[in-house]
């Protein structure tokens, strides 16, 4: 067992280069990045943020479902790529985070576009009774629950819809036992099951990317 290795996926010099090149001019998102850094709120890594931004702009989804809202950073980012009259539903079970997210979304003038639902994601997904309702689902909530949300994601995504899951390589721990730290073993085991199941599913085509902390990009057939 070795110490938690934040550079396990991408060598530091590559990350440094990518981050130097990964710039954006959205002042409000910069402000949220600074807030997240200062207050140790986990938000998507800069490379993953750019990827999300490009994916939404390519696919122009009309309905996005996000699991794991935190302060609303990635929801606000994805809203820039929404199709006409597009909407985002983002789930967050921490009341304080949900409140911060709503305030940020309001300041961004997006209260009619992004709805923050304060709920446990796994439970909430099963309450949504519209099949094939979403064009895109972004999983960025509890990593140990991805495996339990996969069937619901398949049900809720339309054919041709996109599923993106973040942190699936989990600082390399998912890929290699030597990187696993003991207190993370349950999450790691479940992430491995998530990846195995997702890759084996006949209703998804999936690419596993060493981007940021590891990302799966899947399209529902
Ligand atoms: C990595 S953060 C999300 C970051 C956000 N997507 C971004 O990049 O701006 C994960 C969030 O998921 C929330 N969360 C954890 N377990 C959850 C659950 N069971 N249901 C809903 N949200 C959950 C946490 O409170 C946390 O705010």
Which SSEs are present, and which pair or pack?
Layout lengths: L11 H10 L5 H12 L7 H14 L3 E5 L5 H7 L7 E6 L2 H13 L6 E5 L2 H7 L6 E6 L6 H11 E10 L18 H16 L3 E6 L5 E6 L1
Parallel strand pairs: 1-2, 1-4, 2-3, 4-5
Antiparallel strand pairs: 5-7, 6-7
This protein binds S-adenosylmethionine (SAM).
How is this structure best summarized?
The chain has 221 residues and is of the alpha/beta class. It has helices spanning 12-21, 27-38, 46-59, 73-79, 95-107, 121-127, 146-156, 185-200; strands at residues 63-67, 87-92, 114-118, 134-139, 157-166, 204-209, 215-220. The longest helix is centred in the last third of the chain and has 16 residues, at 185-200.
Q: Would you write up a description of this structure?
A:
The protein is of the alpha/beta class. The chain has a single domain, classed as Vaccinia Virus protein VP39 (Rossmann fold), CATH 3.40.50.150. It has eight helices and seven strands; from the N terminus they run αααβαβαβαβαβαββ. Strands 3-2-1-4-5-7-6 form a seven-stranded mixed sheet, with helices on both faces. Helix 7 links the parallel strand 4 and strand 5. Helix 3 runs parallel beside helix 4 and helix 6 packs parallel to helix 7. The longest helix is centred in the last third of the chain and has 16 residues. It is globular, with a radius of gyration of 17 Å. It starts with 11 loop residues before the first helix and ends with a strand. Bound molecules: S-adenosylmethionine. The site of S-adenosylmethionine has 20 residues, from helix 4, strand 2 and helix 6.
């Amino acid at each position: 067992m070795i110490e938690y290795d934040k550079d396990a996926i991408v060598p530091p010099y590559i990350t440094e280069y990518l981050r130097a090149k990964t710039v954006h001019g959205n002042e409000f998102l910069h402000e949220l990045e600074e807030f997240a850094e200062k207050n140790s709120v986990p938000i998507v890594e800069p490379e993953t943020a750019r990827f999300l931004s490009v994916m939404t702009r390519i696919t122009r989804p009309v309905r996005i479902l996000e699991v794991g809202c935190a302060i609303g950073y990635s929801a606000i980012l994805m809203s820039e790529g929404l199709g006409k009259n597009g909407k985002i539903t983002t789930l967050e079970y921490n009341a304080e985070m949900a409140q911060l997210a709503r305030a940020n979304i309001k300041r961004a003038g997006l209260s009619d576009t992004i709805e923050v639902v304060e709920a446990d994601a796994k439970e909430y997904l099963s309450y949504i009774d519209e099949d094939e309702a979403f064009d895109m689902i972004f999983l960025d909530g509890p990593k140990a629950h991805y495996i339990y949300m996969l069937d619901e994601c398949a049900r809720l995504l339309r054919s041709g819809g996109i599923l993106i899951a973040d942190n699936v390589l989990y600082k390399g721990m998912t890929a290699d036992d030597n990187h696993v730290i003991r207190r993370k073993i349950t999450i790691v085991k479940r992430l491995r099951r998530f990846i195995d199941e997702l890759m084996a599913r006949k209703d998804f085509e999936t690419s596993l990317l060493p981007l940021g902390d590891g990302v799966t990009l899947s399209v529902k057939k």
